[in-house]
């Protein structure tokens, strides 16, 4: 199993990613760290703990940054709702939030394990990871790999002036620059790839037919994610791409791009930093892998879900 720490801001697509990743036999999720992104930090932290309970996992949840490094947060309530989950009910958390903050937990876990052991799966603005690199730079060399959902390379963004940036990088461009320019082993999954992974009504029906609490909850979440799409195709399933790439790299087209983060906006522009970027994916095969992972049943599973 690959030891993993997931940095997250649940968030509808974060929730689907967590419910998938937390039950995969080849991923050992050591901890969840939370950040304000899609919604405020108390809500993202509570959502992460509730998602762990639904997945039947007792995983510590460490709250992190409540705001970007140098600007005010801009939560995405219009898409995710005031609860971050589009009104989908989750069971009570088994554990409350840890007393140890995200940066402390990241540093401790990385220092307590052999170098190049732990992967960081980043589903959110990169504030926590940037603070880790700023406060304890000696741990950077111990990270095995970062897989980051973020950015827009050759496609339109979804955040900021002119929609040039992507939400995660644009929410905290200073943090994005610190992490992406650090020379770490990092694979970026931008909108160029994630926009190819969507669900339709037939996929939601297949999730409901799987009949596990996690699959049923994900069906509810995707229903909430359809929004006003008249063709009944969901918004992109951005964040599930991160654990899917970790487990099924052959289903992604990854290439090296020379990039940098544009100051102030978080947009990706041509630059000196070689970064591994997933520019494409096999959407049909990945949807099948996601469904299969969410259909894993058996103890421990807990809770049910109901769209409110």
From TrEMBL:
The keyword Nucleotidyltransferase does not apply. Residues 4-286 form the Inosine/uridine-preferring nucleoside hydrolase domain. Keywords: Glycosidase, Hydrolase. The keyword Hydrolase applies. Coiled coil: none annotated. One of its GO terms (molecular function) is purine nucleosidase activity. It holds the Pfam family IU_nuc_hydro. One of its GO terms (cellular component) is cytosol. InterPro entries: I/U_nuclsd_hydro_CS, Inosine/uridine_hydrolase_dom, IUNH, Ribo_hydro-like. SUPFAM superfamilies: Nucleoside hydrolase. It comes from the Bacteria. GO terms for biological process: purine nucleoside catabolic process. This is Inosine/uridine-preferring nucleoside hydrolase domain-containing protein. It comes from Pacificitalea manganoxidans.
